[in-house]
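Section 5.1 Outputs to date
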Amino acid sequence: MASRAPDAYAAAQALLQRLQHTPQAFGHAVPAVELMQTHISWLLLAGEHVYKFKKPLKLEFLDFSTPALRRAACEEELRINRRTAPQLYLEVVAVVEDEGGLRVLPAAEADARGLQALAHAVHMRRFAQDDLLAALLAQGRLLPAHIDALARHVAQFHAAAAVAAPDSGWGSAAAVRAPVAQCLHAVQALAALPELASEAARVAQLAQWCTAQGEMLAPVFDARLQQGWVRECHGDLHLGNLVVQGGEPLLFDAIEFDPALRWIDVVADVAFLVMDLHAHGRADLGWRFLNAWLERTGDYAGLQVLRYYCVYRALVRARVAGVRLSQLSQVPQPASEARSSALPQALGEVRHYVQLAACLSAPQPCWLGLAHGFSGAGKTTQSQALVARGVVRVRADVERKRLFGLAPEALSAAVPGGIYTPEATERTYARLAELARVVLQAGYPVLIDATLLEAAQRARFVTLAADLQVPWCILAFEAPPEVLRARITQRLQSGGDASEATPAVLERQLATARPLAAQEEAHTLHLDTTQPIDWDAVLAACRTLESSAANAPQRPIFYRLLAP
């Protein structure tokens, strides 16, 4: 049950009103002071600065009922958000009566001077609301480059985050499944409303799916805790809590009030953004973000739990919309114009997120693709279109460097003996096969991005496909030699790519190349990367394998395919 102390609440509101009319209290230029609020905070917008105060509330999920608890929450908010956005989160301040008037001072200074704090707040640097990723998306300004940079930032954040001890309880199977069950209970209550009767069957199916998946994945949740994948994450990683500053995306407003929502599997963290991009009609960017994050972290095993966490995040959003629906329903009649429009919106959001959860729970057709071709043929650049359509790509250039402890863009010259020896190549292809197995067993189609010029290299994956009983195909990326040479030269000049192929490497490839075997040709789609490619048709052809493989595995269903 929610509660608030009326006297404390009224006193806090009165203090904020005084601050609004005392701009000199802030110690910096303030043309005007605006007041905004969320359900748990008040925000004073003072020029280029923001002061965030905790409301004196005690809710089911937080306790800000005393001054000490509110100060502690401010300090925790500062600590966890300075991990990702130190330029936005400046300090904790105290509001004091000093020399006959209100003043806002650093909390440490107020303590040192023995001044009694009337309230504490988080002092932040203000940013333009148009810089939020939610606004960029709504305005059509969210670019793939933003998503790639965000994936790097999130991966670096997760790598540096504190790791949960195995006996901490955070991230255990019980800790993962309990909030999902609670969320489902709330959503099932919503589905009992007459206005949402159309979703009742879908919610019942989701409840069965979550229960079954939670039981099946319980050992995986516990194993990931033991392996160190449960960390002090952000906890609320959606488009409204991401902002571009100085050309770089930043994470802010991490959850400070409940550590259980923050100490989670890193995949649970990224699942929120993946789900949110799906919810906003940009699944392509969700897949792009996921793939870029996977390349940075190497956590392909996390795909085992991704679908479960995505469904949970969608159900959370349905539950939040339901809370808003309940609040609107309690507004006295006659309904205001605002309430009349807000009620259908809240109902629509519940339906939208329930339907999204059902969609995200559905299995994908699984197949194994081999991106075959010379260096410079466009395998990585062109296959980005498949990534945007839900294919998990594993790159040989990235995984080879990971085996030697190198970042994707790092140069390998400093590695004794080099990383392109026959032994290193064998290790790389063994790793690619291992990851392909992991991705397929997690229920996702996978594309191996490698030259795969030798028959033995390709045979390893054909055997894997047969072992897992999934269809396979070869996507042969092709371009004339002069185009390949020009692309490699341009790539080397630009830098920043995981590939270190040189013109000399290409010439060796061209000189020793052997054609695909007839049996391989029956599974091959030749792609001329000098022309536009109809990628939807490519994906449809790949999916055709699922139904055709069992009855006619050698049927030559592929052909040269270009956009009309």
